[in-house]
Structures are given as structure tokens and as C-alpha cells.
Design brief:
By secondary structure, the protein is mainly alpha-helical. The protein contains 22 helices and four strands.
Length: about 425
């Protein structure tokens, strides 16, 4: 255990040093071509506004152009000349006369002189790892072109993942992870950079688990997957639906392995802690490193943000726990999702009446997956403010519950198949 703690600290330090150097590197890239490509995107940015449905009034089709524009604003924000400072302070420019972040972005790109009412907003509490791909792409492509590239890469990774799942777990394995991905809504993720980083994290983590399953099992290195997954979420994500990057890979782990109930419960707890340590540790290291290089108190700023997003008080908003949960469930339950869940429930009822199913044989796998499916409801209790204010994308945490329900069905099917083979 002591060696594992030392290894965890070592990995966090290595990750933060590499993350810092990479961020300094992308901040050294010239901005003129980035600005030019933002200006080429002016027609799109002007017409779409802060938020846009690609299917009218369906919550999970709402694109977050507001956050995308902030990310692009940070990418082209004028440097102070101090690379280390700029890479850690991560400012964007806003104006008080409009709340349209696309307008803020276009004013910066258009070279509009700063006048009374503008504000350089410090956003250094996040690592902003998405800049590692956004800045280089902005050198070459406009925003619409970047969306097409985003869609192509995500589709390629999804196809790769489905092939691996089918090879190792069969069709129901594909349905398990596919249900979670359906709830995330891949089309919206492809059109919204803000939603893409967690989606990429889930796809890549699951692919790594499937590709290196034998090696991870032999070396007992599964914990490293969850630690690095948490580190990656803290580095790249701008606080969207981070828990999904723990829940779905953790469900996949229990589908890939076969241990006793006690061992599975222990692993569920330990791997969840590994993820949280990676996530929280990487975040705190940004505050410490950023404070050291900027002189700005990012620790207080970060802790203040955590306190705000986990608070249960917000003026004119019903922050009661049941309202937070019901609001997120309603946002998730689109007609396609409802149809899929009804089908799953019918199959599960059929499985319950199957004489060939043995509860004891699958309970070691069923119970941990059932507990993981409850993770989102703990999340909504702890991160209550964020979950109700941003319900239109925070609902995606329920992808864990959706995947867990289908994973339980997988246990039924697998046991029935074994009985037939016997």
C-alpha cells in the first residue's frame, strides 16, 4: 500500500509537470492565424448565439456555444508577454454590455479596442487542457471545420470501441456501453467542444481497458487506469459531467473480470478512490502551480468555486434534492431513451422468470454494478448547485445509471447462455 501511495504521488507530479510544459508550449503558438480562423467563423458564431437546439426543444440536443466561445476566447486571448504567467492564468475577455460570449469572442478577434466595460476574467482554477488540441486546430481550421473533424474522430473511436466490445463481450456488451453513450448524445458531443472532452475520456479509457485487458489483469494495474482517467478529466474538462468518466469504465471493468463479491466491493471502492485522488489531486496541483507562477490566489479561487457548485442555496431556484434529481431525470428521458429502457425492463422481467438463471452465480457482479448505478444520485446530492443550474448537460451523469441497468441485463443473458452451454 505504501508503494502504491508513493506511485500515486509520483504520477500526479509527473502529470502536472508534463501538463504545465505542454500548456506553455501551446501558449507559445502564434495567434494571428487563430484569430483569422475565428473571423472566418463569424457567420456561424453570429447566427447561433449562446445556445442552440439541433432538434427543437429536446434538452439533450442543446449545444453549449456559450462555453465553446469562452474556450476559443481563452485560446486567442492576447498574451502579456510572460508565457509562464499566461499559461497558468488563462484569461478570457468579457464585456458588461452583453452576455453573448460569441460577441465577446468576435470583438477580440475583430481587434476591437478595449473600452470601459470590458473585463479580463481570470479562469486559472482549471487546467484548460483542451487548449492542447484547440489552439493547433485553430491555426489551420475554422470553427465549422473543427466540428467536422471532431465528429470524424469521435465516430472513429466509437466504431473501434464497439468492435472491441463485440469481440470480447458480445452484442449485449455493446448495448451496455452503447446505452450510456446514447444518453450522452454523440451528435451533441460532436457539435459542442465543451462536451467532447469527457466523451473522449470515456471512449479512450474503455478502449485501453479492452486492448490491454490481459496485461492489466496480469500486472494488477487496473488501479492505474482509474487514477490516470481521473487525472485526464481534471486536466481537460471544464466541469461538465466528469463522473461519467469513472462510472462507465468501472462498469466495464466488472463485465471484464470475475471475482468474489468481497473482492469486487473492495475493488469498486479502491478504484473509485483512485479516480477521485487523480481528479482532485491534479486539480489542486493546478491551483498550487498557477499561484506560484502568477501571484494570483488560485487556491482560494478554486475552493470558492467548489463551495459554490456544491452549495444547496441559490436565489429563486428550488435546490431541494428531489427537485434536482427529478429535473435531471426529466432531461434524460427523451423518447428514444424511454423506448430503450422499456425494452430492457421487459427483457429483465423475462430473465427473472427464467429458471436457468442463478442469482448466486452472478450476485458478485450484479451488486457492485447496482451500487455504481447509484453514483449519480450521490453526485446530485453533493454537487447540487452545478447539477440544477446546468441541468441541460449535467443530466448526462445518468448515463452511468443507464449503462448499469443494461449491464445487469448482461449478467442475465450471460448466465442463461452458460446454462444452455452446460
Amino acid at each position: 500500500m505504501f508503494k502504491r501511495i508513493l506511485a500515486t504521488i509520483e504520477y500526479l507530479v509527473i502529470a502536472s509537470v508534463i501538463g504545465f510544459l505542454l500548456m506553455v508550449g501551446v501558449y507559445a503558438l502564434p495567434k494571428a492565424r487563430m484569430v483569422n480562423n475565428i473571423n472566418r467563423s463569424r457567420p456561424l458564431l453570429t447566427t447561433e448565439g449562446n445556445y442552440r437546439y439541433w432538434a427543437e426543444d429536446i434538452t439533450n440536443t442543446l449545444s453549449d456555444n456559450f462555453s465553446d466561445s469562452l474556450m476559443e476566447d481563452i485560446a486567442i486571448n492576447p498574451n502579456t508577454g510572460n508565457l509562464l504567467y499566461d499559461a497558468m492564468i488563462n484569461c478570457y475577455v468579457g464585456w458588461q454590455d452583453t452576455s453573448n460570449s460569441s460577441e465577446w469572442l468576435l470583438r477580440v478577434a475583430g481587434g476591437q479596442p478595449f473600452y470601459e466595460g470590458y473585463e479580463q476574467v481570470v479562469y486559472g482554477r482549471y487546467w484548460h487542457g483542451y487548449l492542447l488540441w484547440m489552439k493547433p486546430l485553430l491555426l489551420l481550421f475554422s470553427v465549422p471545420e473543427m466540428r467536422l473533424i471532431n465528429m470524424a474522430v469521435q465516430l472513429a473511436l466509437l466504431c473501434w470501441l464497439m468492435i472491441l466490445l463485440y469481440q470480447q463481450l458480445g452484442i449485449v456488451g455493446c448495448l451496455t456501453i452503447g446505452t450510456g453513450i446514447l444518453i450522452l448524445n454523440p451528435i451533441t458531443c460532436a457539435m459542442t467542444f465543451h462536451f467532447s472532452d469527457i466523451y473522449y475520456n470515456v471512449l479512450i479509457t474503455c478502449i485501453v481497458m479492452l486492448r490491454h485487458r490481459t496485461t492489466l489483469q496480469r500486472r494488477n494495474d487496473w488501479w492505474k487506469v482509474f487514477l490516470w482517467c481521473g487525472i485526464g478529466v481534471a486536466y481537460f474538462d471544464l466541469m461538465t459531467y466528469p463522473l461519467v468518466a469513472l462510472g462507465i469504465p468501472l462498469i466495464l471493468y466488472f463485465l471484464l473480470t470475475d471475482n468474489s463479491l468481497g473482492s469486487n466491493l473492495s475493488r469498486m471502492i479502491h478504484y473509485s478512490i483512485d479516480w477521485v485522488v487523480g481528479y482532485a489531486g491534479m486539480w489542486v496541483l493546478k491551483w498550487l502551480i498557477g499561484s506560484a507562477f502568477t501571484g494570483y490566489d488560485l487556491v482560494t479561487d478554486g475552493l470558492g468555486a467548489v463551495g459554490l457548485r456544491s452549495s444547496g442555496a441559490l436565489e429563486n431556484v428550488n435546490m431541494e434534492y428531489l427537485n434536482v434529481v427529478s429535473s435531471n431525470v426529466q432531461a434524460m428521458l427523451t423518447k428514444p431513451v424511454i423506448a430503450l429502457l422499456v425494452l430492457i425492463v421487459l427483457c429483465m422481467i423475462a430473465g427473472l422468470f427464467s429458471r436457468k438463471f442463478e442469482w448466486k452465480a452472478q450476485w458478485a457482479r450484479l451488486f457492485p454494478i447496482l451500487l455504481i448505478g447509484c453514483y449519480p444520485f450521490v453526485w446530485y446530492f453533493v454537487i447540487r448547485n452545478h447539477s440544477i443550474v446546468h441541468v441541460w448537460f449535467a443530466y448526462r451523469v445518468l448515463a452511468i445509471t443507464g449503462a448499469a441497468v443494461v449491464a445487469i441485463l448482461f449478467c442475465f443473458v450471460k448466465e442463461t447462455r452458460r446454462s444452455h452451454e452446460a
